[in-house]
């Protein structure tokens, strides 16, 4: 396949409002698909005559499918272009949503969710690669901040939409809704999104699927940025995986009380992304990333000290996590912008690997904290794991400052 004929300078002039809107929408699809079904899990278990533990696999299988699929979508888009891979991902998502809609068993539903995750991962991974195609590193971090602000609203509204549909129309209609959304995004992607893949540098050849991993593996700075992304996401998922048990079992909170405390977490993330969008051109993406890492570490240690002092109150857990939401908004987009910038013509592969680290580390963090809480029910375990992961993010962030690119 021929390289993108658009000259590099023209390709970096930016994008129209409709292109940015489509990128926000395709990136939002992943978060929408995760959060919309959460209020309907009990209804799904009853409707498919299975237990709650089995239907919960529709969440974990989706996450792992998304993490693994990004490793494939990224290099394929470097080889064949962003548009065809993204269009194929949207088409697969639509077909998978229909499988979920028509599922007659929990295993058929899980299969549909795995295929959904593979399809939605194309938008999640390639949206960032396309931004890097269109903008240079600092501006790319700024645009990623604005885009993330857009799709960070999904976790706030998706559970409400899913709950309303499930309560009044039945859980299957959630997947009909997602099918319609997928069809709209497929059309918008086809109609409005141009091919943005950059040509390879003069004198080089476009590398194959596995060769792209080999090239990135030799760049220390790439691993520093990718690991920072993973560790920072792990901090948040350690909280997400551990606090429902701690809050309800140890602090005696109701589900409504937990929800009221948690509702402010995305706001911190939204503010952090706003600061990234507004300040990165002035301060620099690397510095903002390291500031975010340090805030995350300080917040995790604060929670550890508050609980260690004997203050057994929900705010000992939740107040620091508001800062961690802010820290992730400062760090994550800047670390991803760094990862996809070390070799711009391999932005797809870099975005796929970094995104896989992001989702994969988060999934592993939930497994670790779940296992630790089976050994002892101390609420201290949550901030201890968060502190270890935040400290690791600080270390890899410093490594990125000096690593060879």
Order of helices and strands: HHHHHHHHHHHHHHHHH
Put simply, the count of helices is 17
Q: Shape, please?
A: globular
The total of beta strands comes to: 0
Straight-line distance between termini? 28 Å
Q: What Rg do the Cα atoms give?
A: 21 Å
DSSP strand content: under 5%
Sheet with most strands:
none
Instruction: Report the structural category.
Output: mainly alpha
Arithmetic mean pLDDT: 82
Measured as a percent range, the helix fraction is: over 70%
Poorly predicted runs are 1-14
Could you please describe the fold and organization of this structure?
It is a single chain. With 405 residues, this protein is mainly α.
Brief overview:
The chain is mainly α and 405 residues long. Helix content is 81%, strand content 0%.
Question: What topology emerges from the helices and strands here?
Answer:
Elements: H1 8-11, H2 17-35, H3 41-47, H4 52-80, H5 82-101, H6 106-134, H7 137-151, H8 154-169, H9 172-192, H10 209-217, H11 220-250, H12 255-262, H13 265-283, H14 285-308, H15 314-339, H16 347-375, H17 381-402
Helix pairs in contact: 2-6, 2-7, 2-8, 2-9, 3-4, 4-5, 4-6, 4-10, 4-16, 5-6, 5-9, 6-7, 6-16, 7-13, 7-15, 11-15, 11-16, 11-17, 13-14, 13-15, 14-15, 14-17
Characteristics of this structure?
disordered N terminus, mainly alpha, 405 residues, single chain, 0% strand
């Amino acid at each position: 396949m021929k390289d993108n004929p658009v000259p590099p300078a023209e390709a970096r002039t930016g994008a129209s409002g409709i292109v940015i809107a489509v990128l926000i929408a395709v990136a939002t699809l992943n978060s929408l698909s995760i959060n919309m079904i959460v209020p309907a899990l009990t209804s799904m278990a009853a409707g498919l005559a299975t237990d709650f533990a089995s239907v919960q696999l529709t969440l974990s299988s989706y996450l792992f499918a998304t993490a693994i699929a990004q490793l494939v979508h990224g290099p394929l888009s470097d080889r064949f272009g962003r548009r065809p891979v993204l269009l194929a991902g949207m088409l697969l998502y639509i077909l998978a949503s229909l499988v979920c809609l028509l599922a007659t068993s929990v295993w058929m539903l899980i299969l549909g969710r795995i295929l959904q995750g593979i399809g939605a991962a194309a938008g999640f991974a390639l949206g960032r690669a396309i931004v890097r195609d269109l903008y240079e590193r600092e501006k790319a971090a700024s645009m990623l901040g604005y885009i993330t602000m857009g799709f960070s609203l999904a976790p706030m509204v998706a559970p409400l939409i899913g709950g309303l549909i499930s309560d009044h129309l039945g859980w299957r209609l959630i997947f009909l809704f997602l099918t319609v959304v997928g069809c709209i995004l497929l059309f918008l992607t086809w109609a409005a999104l141009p091919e943005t893949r950059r040509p390879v540098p003069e004198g080089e050849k476009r590398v194959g699927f596995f060769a792209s991993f080999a090239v990135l593996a030799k760049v220390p700075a790439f691993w520093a940025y990718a690991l920072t992304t993973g560790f920072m996401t792990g901090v948040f998922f350690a909280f997400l995986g551990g606090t429902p048990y701690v809050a309800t079992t140890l602090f005696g909170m109701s589900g409504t009380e937990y929800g009221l405390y948690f509702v402010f977490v995305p706001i911190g993330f939204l503010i952090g992304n706003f600061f990234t969008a507004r300040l990165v051109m002035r301060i620099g993406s690397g510095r903002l990333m390291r500031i975010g890492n340090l805030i995350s570490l300080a917040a995790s240690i604060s929670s550890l000290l508050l609980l260690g002092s004997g203050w057994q109150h929900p705010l000992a857990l939740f107040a620091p996590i508001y800062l961690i939401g802010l820290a992730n908004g400062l760090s994550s987009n800047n670390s991803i912008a760094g990862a996809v910038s070390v070799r711009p013509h391999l932005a797809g592969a870099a975005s796929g690997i970094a995104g896989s680290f992001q989702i994969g580390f988060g999934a592993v963090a939930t497994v670790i904290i779940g296992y630790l809480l089976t050994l002892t029910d101390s609420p201290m375990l949550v901030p201890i794991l968060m502190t270890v992961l935040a400290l690791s993010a600080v270390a890899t962030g410093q490594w990125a400052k000096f690593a060879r690119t």
